[in-house]
Amino acid sequence: MNQLATPAELSLPLTARHAILEFKADLSFGERNRQAVDDLIEGSRLWRLSCALAWLDIGLRYRGSMLGPFWLTLSTGIMVAMLGFLYAKLFKMDLQTYLPFLALSQVLWAFMGTVVAEACTTYIDMVGIIRSVRMPMSVFAMRTIVRNVLVLAHNIVVIVVVFAIFRVWPGWHAILAIPGLFLWLVVSLSLTMLLGSLCARFRDIAPIVNSLMQIAFFITPVIWRPEQLGDYQYLLPFNPFYNLLEVVRAPLLGEHVATTTWLIALGFSVGVCTLSWLFFIRARGRLAFWV
């Protein structure tokens, strides 16, 4: 039994809708878990729909633009160039090694930060569709992830250009970034489902998350290198964003990823996925009433 509200239910008086909601909320945990699993499976089968909707979002966002999404690529390239020369001078670092690091870090962080920001409005922005069409809730989360993957694919041009100019090639180490990227997709989907549901219920969470992400940007080695912490470098593993960033960034720079970094990244991912699933089981049937 699907917990999504039907058009007939939405046409009922508010008290009747609340009664239906309470009835559905009384389902056993096992039943709700089964329905959540069915939602995820059905959403996975509709992956073409998620891709089409994500591509439509990109097209609508840059409709009438000559460069389209490549405006993001151009702005990212200019920002990396300006920040690279400035911070290389301020931090007294070799531009040959710092600029490739900055370009890669900035592009990867842009994906991570944008996913978190857009996750907060995943269901709120789709209120019209959620209330009028019976569709798995996981489709909307997948739509957000695919949209940001497409933007990331455009920004990879910046990395390739900078690496080519400075003749930095990671070699076979780059293959080791693939498991990290897969982990990113899993965590991103879980975060999108979690934050999307939480922000649909509590609208104050979105600005809090955005503020925390701004703080996380400055305390995570994105525009500065980890070794610049000196004796305080041991604090970095306590930053989950650093561990997630490093499992992808280090192989692409031809560097080794510490086992501790991978273990912490996996532990954080398991925690996020577990919390996301438990809340999604609880919130899935109520989302149509929250948005």
Explain what you see.
This protein is mainly alpha-helical. The chain has one domain (29-290). Helices cover 73% and strands 0% of the residues. The protein contains 13 helices and no strands. It has helices at 7-10, 14-25, 29-45, 47-61, 70-90, 95-119, 127-132, 137-165, 177-201, 205-219, 240-252, 259-283, 287-290. Helix 4 crosses helix 8 (137-165), helix 5 crosses helix 8 (137-165) and helix 9 (177-201) runs antiparallel to helix 11. The two termini are 21 Å apart.
Topology:
Layout: H1 7-10, H2 14-25, H3 29-45, H4 47-61, H5 70-90, H6 95-119, H7 127-132, H8 137-165, H9 177-201, H10 205-219, H11 240-252, H12 259-283, H13 287-290
Number of continuous helical runs: 13
Terminal Cα separation, in Å?
A: 21 Å
The value of Rg in angstroms is 21 Å
Which strand-content bin applies to the residues? Answer: under 5%
State the total count of DSSP E strands.
Answer: 0
Helix proportion range: over 70%
What global shape is seen?
A: globular
Whole-number count of domains = 1
Report the sheet with the most strands, covering strand number, pairing sense and barrel closure: none
Order of helices and strands: HHHHHHHHHHHHH
Stretches with pLDDT under 50, minimum 5 residues: none
